[in-house]
């Protein structure tokens, strides 16, 4: 959830001064983009958010104990006391980079799982933990220690002026008021990073927005929230509602949500930072003593602008990092759920890295032929329906997303990965996983939906079926067999 802050509440004077600092930071950023030198090493990175469970598959609210046991700085807290976050070191995607990513993730997770077991906790990679219940959001026991999390909760509720309405309609429905932003902690994701030079950023961001729908359709893994079957990737709408600072009147006026797809194609990374300052009041207006200072490479630190950027939740987020000998820019692709397996995760990453590489270098960019609203409509349709969705594509029209993925996008992703220098056998291995997943139409969401329905048809009530589903999911996750091969079977006993 970003850097820590020093206080849980803020004065009007702090907010006023912070706004002035943001505008100063923004002007400095514009100047540096046109004159500064940025690092470009062609690296990729990954962050993975994880759930902690007890032996009965209920959420384990003790991430502090788990992190102490793991004792590795690459693992950190997340907002929920049943969540942790893992960071994989940056590496090159060329050659055997994707295999190195898979092996590195497995090593990190296996070690963490062993250490977590010492404090009676298990680690689960899944978009939303199926065993979450509504009573979790009734108090603040779910919140991780740290002033940032408490300040964020306070600022969101103050901006709304009322409790948080969670109202979702899908296969089933759920509606309730939360007294805090606890539902946000239900949402665990994998975040893909790609480092870019300033001139590369806009075409890569535009390409990432274009493919957001098919990405979500392939990877959907969050069909259950508060014991109800909802969207195939319910996490998308839960996150939007849980941290929405707008009361209904503001939504009716068209005020933009903090969790935002965006509204236009861009020509520069500056467009996104400028929109952040123009449209979104600060949630954490903490003034920094480092304003005006530079990193050792001479880049401006811009602490207020970077802190504010961390509280605008774009699905493809721009990052300016002044650290190191040279500053760098990167895009964080944040729309995929965690899991189901390490193999599935790396296959999803291969799809993203290959596609954005291929699309950004096309002679006639797709975004020049696709209305931005159509890209957003594809994204929401795929979040709702997963691999059963229908989407619109330039030059083709409406078609099943499975057909789009198999006939058009996987070949483009293969070309992009080849252009990045990825070993040919790895291209076939990882994209082959996705081809088989699309052909079977079984992603993590479909497996969960069908498994729950099978367990209930065999006589289990909803609570018992969800616990059993989660246990079966954990066993399959540890097998590292791709999700399209998981059997849908009710194993009771």
Task: Write a concise keyword list for the protein shown above.
493 residues; alpha+beta; seven-stranded antiparallel sheet; 15 strands; globular
Describe the protein in words.
It is a single chain. The protein has helices at 12-35, 63-70, 97-117, 147-160, 198-210, 212-219, 235-242, 248-252, 269-279, 303-309, 342-360, 372-385, 401-419, 424-440, 444-457, 462-479; strands at 43-53, 75-77, 83-92, 122-124, 164-169, 173-178, 189-196, 224-225, 228-229, 259-260, 313-314, 316-321, 328-337, 390-393, 397-400. By secondary structure, it is of the alpha+beta class. It contains 16 helices and 15 strands. Strands 1, 2, 3, 4, 7, 12 and 13 form a 7-stranded antiparallel beta sheet that branches. It is globular and about 65 Å long. A hairpin with a 5-residue loop joins strand 2 (75-77) and strand 3 (83-92).
Summed up:
The chain is α+β, with helices and mostly antiparallel strands and 493 residues long. 45% of the residues lie in helices and 16% in strands.
Biggest beta sheet attributes? 7 strands, antiparallel
Radius of gyration: 22 Å
* Portion in strands: 15-25%
Low-confidence stretches: none
Count of individual beta strands? 15
Rounded mean pLDDT is 93
- Overall helicity: 40-55%
Label the structural class: alpha+beta
Instruction: Using the alpha-carbon principal axes, give the shape.
Output: globular
Number of continuous helical runs:
16
How far apart lie the N and C ends? Answer: 40 Å
